[in-house]
Specification:
By secondary structure, the chain is of the alpha/beta class. The chain has 16 helices and 5 strands.
C-alpha cells in the first residue's frame, strides 16, 4: 500500500443515483449527460444553466434532483473509483452539484408551502458527504414538509438539543460510510430516548438496509423517493424510551470493539513498523508513500473495528476486496494487503472475533490479488 485509499467501499459514493419513473425518458437522460459534461470540467455556470433550463421547460423539480443531479453524482463516484478522475475533480464536481441544488431550490417551480409536519434531516457525526441528505431535504420540501436541514457532521448532543427546541415528527439520518455506523447507532438511540423516531438512509446502512435493522432504526429507505414515500404513509412508530445500544448488539460485551478502538493509534504504529519486514518493498517507499500507507492502515483498523461492532465479517471482507480493486486501478500492488492482515492478526492474537474477521479477509483476497506490479504512486 502506498497510495491514499479513501474509505468508501462500493456503493458509497457521495450520492447514489436514484432511479424513478422518468429515468428512461430521453429528456432526462440528455439532461444528465449535459450536466455530467459540465461538472466533469468544473463548469459551474453551465451546470446551473442545465438545471434551471430544465425547470424552465417544465421538468419536474424532484426528477431534476434525483434523476439528473443524483445520477450524475453517482457517476462522479464511479469515475473516481476507476481512477479516471482525481480527488480534486471529484470534490469540484460535488461542489458544483451542491450549487446546482441550491439554485434549483430558489427557482419558482420549486416553491412550495408547508402542508405537512416537520422533519429534521442531518448527517451523523463524522459524515462529511452531505449531498444525499441535502437531496432528501429538498425532496421533502417539495412534497410539503417543513424541513430543518442541519447538514454534514452533526454531533449527537447538538442534534438532540435541536430536537428539544423544535417539534420534529421524525429525524432523517444519513450516512454514506460504514465506519460511521457506531456513531449513527448512538444518534439513533439518543433520538429515540427523547421520543423522536428515526428514519435512516445512505450507503452505510447496506443496500438492503440490514444495518438499519440491526441498529434498531424505526425505518429505512434506499433513496430519497422511498424515504419521502414512507414518511407520506403516516407517522413513524414512536420508539420505546428504555432502548439501550447494548440491547441491539450483545456481542459488544466482549470489549473487543472498545479495546481496539481505544488503542487504534498504537495498533497502527505497531503494524506499520512490523510491515517493513513482512513487506520488504515498503523499505523503498518515499515519505509521501509511507504517509499514505499509514493512512491506509488506519482505515483497515477502522473497518475492522466497525465489523466487530456490528458482528458482521462481510463488512470487512467487502472493504478489503474493494480496497484491492482501488489499489490495482492506481497501479499499486494489492499484494501488500495479505501481509498487513497477518501482522494485524499477530498483534490481536488475544482477540478471537478479530482473528476470525482477519482470516475471512485473507481468504477473500486470494482470488483478487492479481497485481504484481512494482509501480507505486
Amino acid at each position: 500500500m502506498s497510495t491514499r485509499t479513501p474509505h468508501r467501499p462500493p456503493g458509497t459514493g457521495t450520492a447514489a443515483p436514484t432511479v424513478g419513473a422518468t429515468v428512461g425518458e430521453p429528456c432526462v437522460e440528455q439532461l444528465a449527460d449535459a450536466l455530467w459534461d459540465a461538472v466533469s470540467v468544473a463548469d459551474e455556470h453551465t451546470a446551473v444553466e442545465v438545471v434551471l433550463g430544465a425547470l424552465d421547460r417544465g421538468v419536474d423539480p424532484e426528477s431534476v434532483l434525483l434523476d439528473v443531479i443524483a445520477r450524475v453524482q453517482g457517476k462522479v463516484g464511479e469515475e473516481w473509483a476507476a481512477n479516471r478522475i482525481g480527488v480534486a475533480q471529484e470534490h469540484a464536481a460535488t461542489a458544483i452539484n451542491e450549487r446546482a441544488v441550491a439554485a434549483l431550490s430558489r427557482h419558482p417551480a420549486a416553491r412550495t408551502t408547508p402542508t405537512r409536519g416537520r422533519i429534521t434531516v442531518a448527517c451523523v457525526d463524522g459524515e462529511w458527504h452531505a449531498l444525499p441528505a441535502r437531496l432528501l431535504a429538498e425532496v421533502l420540501t417539495l412534497r410539503g414538509w417543513q424541513v430543518d436541514y442541519l447538514g454534514a457532521q452533526v454531533p449527537s448532543p447538538h442534534l438532540i438539543a435541536h430536537l428539544h427546541r423544535t417539534d420534529s415528527d421524525a429525524v432523517a439520518l444519513s450516512s454514506s460510510i460504514a465506519t460511521r455506523l457506531p456513531t449513527a447507532h448512538a444518534a439513533i438511540t439518543a433520538c429515540q430516548a427523547v421520543g423522536v423516531p428515526v428514519l435512516v438512509g445512505g450507503a452505510a446502512f447496506g443496500p438492503d438496509g440490514r444495518y438499519a435493522q440491526l441498529l434498531d432504526a424505526d425505518a429505512w429507505a434506499p433513496d430519497a423517493r422511498a424515504a419521502a414515500d414512507r414518511l407520506a404513509l403516516g407517522p413513524l412508530p414512536r420508539p420505546r424510551g428504555d432502548h439501550q445500544q447494548l440491547d441491539d448488539l450483545p456481542h459488544l460485551a466482549d470489549q473487543e470493539y472498545t479495546l481496539i478502538t481505544r488503542n487504534s493509534a498504537s495498533l497502527v504504529r505497531a503494524v506499520f513498523t512490523a510491515l517493513q519486514d513482512a513487506f520488504p518493498a515498503m523499505r523503498t517507499y518515499s515519505e509521501v508513500q509511507l504517509e499514505r500507507t499509514a493512512e491506509d492502515l488506519a482505515h483497515i483498523v477502522e473497518f475492522l473495528a466497525t465489523a466487530l461492532y456490528l458482528g458482521d465479517e462481510d463488512l470487512f471482507v467487502g472493504f478489503l476486496t474493494w480496497t484491492a480493486q482501488i489499489l490495482t486501478a492506481r497501479g499499486v500492488p494489492a499484494s501488500s494487503l495479505p501481509p498487513t492482515l497477518a501482522v494485524l492478526a499477530r498483534e490481536l492474537k488475544d482477540f478471537p472475533r478479530a482473528i476470525r474477521v482477519l482470516e475471512r479477509g485473507a481468504e477473500a483476497l486470494t482470488p483478487v490479488d492479481h497485481s504484481t506490479a512494482e509501480s507505486r504512486s
